[in-house]
Design goal:
Helix content is 43%, strand content 20%. The protein is built from six helices and six strands; from the N terminus they run H-E-E-E-E-H-E-E-H-H-H-H. It has a six-stranded antiparallel sheet, covered by helices on one side.
Length: 218
């Protein structure tokens, strides 16, 4: 009986290890004039994602804020947002034609490279600016998610080295969430929960964290 149970368990583990991870979208961004200059976000259809960013070569002296050298973490995005992302990709034939870039003379916003893989196939494209409003909107939304995660990493630095700067930093996140520059505040939910319950930080900081948490899933 024990041998049979072990065989069944081993088979189940092997099946799980080889299971199809499902649809996945990888986003790679690069702009050497920004901080961070490079980042990537791998998003799966269940809302789980992994983010990695590197500060780049912009001199620290040229910035007036604490900048994390590397940000590398798992995050969760809302079901509605995730569904819209994958619906956009499917609506555009999984990005198979590769024609996202407008080739218009517009300001450089940073290269966004999208790579999709899933049971339907694969596809991808790269663009600075797209004339297709859905693709451009998708790029802007994903940049907004990345900006939220990076701002969260900056808040962590302030919490450790300059707690008096937390109020201004959270105010910036609130404003960015309202005007759309920052999206998916749920990506920094664990950080906000810790701030909300930390009696060592200012009451106003805890209140801002609470307000952000109340809107994080919207």
């Amino acid at each position: 009986m024990k041998i049979l149970l072990a065989v069944v368990l081993a088979a189940a583990l092997a099946q799980h290890a080889g299971a199809d991870p499902g649809p996945m979208l990888r986003v790679e961004f690069s702009n050497p004039s920004l901080t961070p200059s490079n980042w990537s976000l791998v998003l799966r259809s269940d809302g789980s994602a992994h983010f990695h960013a590197e500060r780049g070569s912009v001199p620290v002296a040229n910035t007036d804020r604490m900048e994390p050298a590397i940000v590398d973490r798992d995050v969760w995005l809302t079901a509605d947002f995730t569904a819209r992302v994958f619906e956009t990709v499917r609506h555009h034939n999984l990005l198979r034609d590769g024609r996202c870039e407008s080739h218009l003379k517009v300001a450089f916003q940073g290269w966004k490279k999208l790579s999709y893989s899933g049971p339907e196939g694969t596809g991808g494209c790269e663009f600075n600016y797209s004339k297709d409003k859905d693709i451009q909107g998708l790029g802007d939304a994903l940049v907004g998610v990345a900006s939220t995660i990076v701002e969260g990493a900056r808040v962590e630095l302030l919490w450790q080295y300059d707690p008096l700067g937390l109020d201004h930093a959270l105010e910036f996140i609130q404003q960015g969430a309202r005007d759309g520059r920052l999206q998916q505040v749920c990506a920094i939910r664990p950080l906000l929960e810790k701030l909300e319950s930390d009696p060592a930080v200012m009451e106003r900081v805890r209140r801002r964290a609470q307000q952000l948490l109340s809107e994080a899933g919207k």
